[in-house]
Amino acid sequence: MFKKFAIAAPMAVLALSSSMAFAAGEARHSINLVASVPTKVFHVLPVDPDLIVKDQVLTYNPISDELSTLRAQFDTKNTNGSIAASLESEAFLSNGVEADKVPLTVTFNGKALTHTTTEEVVGEVESTPGKRVDLVIAPTKPGTGYKPGEYTGAVTMVFDAVPTP
């Protein structure tokens, strides 16, 4: 019995001291969380939240001299009427040279959006229960083709809850 205790006691001390040595090093991780719960009356939200958080890349195909099109889906709802939309400003890509500007065509639920007029994009019948719709942002190739450069742009859409009269 004494032999078992004589072997077990040093082993326990060794185990405890080694775990204390490991406790001296520490790792911490912080995960930031956010959540957004829309109203049950009106919302227009991207299905993929990264759409409005991260840069969206339009890839260039050098063989066809084409830029890709951005396609995304939105969940829409207005229990008190329809939904109208417009662009806050002209939609285009720019490399800093006015002559190289690339116009963008923006359609929401198949309706073209402009910065000069507001368009009904989801009718009352569809918006009351809610509907998932497509957003398409397509570059319009200039007549002389795309000029080399780094292009950036922003498309800002404004959505309005249009009440039933």
Q: Which key phrases capture this entry?
A:
165 residues; alpha+beta; three-stranded antiparallel β-sheet; 2 helices; flat; Fimbrial_CS1-type
What does this protein structure show overall?
- Pfam families: Fimbrial_CS1.
- InterPro entries: Fimbrial_CS1-type (IPR007540).
- Residues 1-23 form the signal peptide.
- Keywords: Signal.
- Strands 1, 4, 6, 7, 8 and 10 form a six-stranded antiparallel beta sheet that branches. This protein has a three-stranded antiparallel beta sheet with strand order 9-5-11.
- With 165 residues, it is of the alpha+beta class.
- The N and C termini lie far apart (93 Å).
- It has helices at residues 2-24, 124-127; strands spanning 42-46, 60-61, 66-67, 70-78, 81-87, 92-93, 102-108, 111-113, 119-122, 131-139, 157-163.
- The model is unreliable at 1-5 (pLDDT under 50).
